[in-house]
Amino acid sequence: xxxxxxxxxxSSAIIIVVIVGFTLIFNWQISxxxxxxxxxxxxxxxxxxxxxLLSSLGDLKSQSAAAAQDQQEMNLMxxxxxxxxxxxxxxxxxxxxxxxxxxxxxQGNQTPPAQSAPxxxxxxxxxxxxxxxxxxxxNAMEISLPRYMINFQKINLNQVGPNVQVSVDGQLxxx
Length: 175
Fold this sequence. Notes:
The protein is of the alpha+beta class. It is built from 3 helices and 4 strands. A hairpin with a 7-residue loop joins strand 1 and strand 2. The mean pLDDT is 83.
């Protein structure tokens, strides 16, 4: 019986060692697989961030081209600061055509243009005359405004007898 017991013990020991070995290798592979899964998930997240960045970079490049075109169009619309000197002469011509008395003066310091915004200078415009003549002057000014961009900030209207006096504070923009 001793003869049969010894191979049975050896066979059992070999089977137990093989099972333990396979169990250890299997557990090691599972833990290795978990770490690889986490690493793949991290790489996927990084890749998605890079794709989003590339997409936004493409959008920015296309917007940059559109912005450059808009900037060129704005430059064509706006006069230079030296060309603003013609503005009072243009207003004087309109006032004569519409029988309106006019005084014009630039006020304060000009704000120089920046790359993303035009420059500006404040002005005061005083008008006097019949109400209909002043309305015609303002309409002509709005309709035929050549290359000038104006922001009216404050308009005061006073009736003096049959005539009206108008004071306008505003800004002229330039490139």
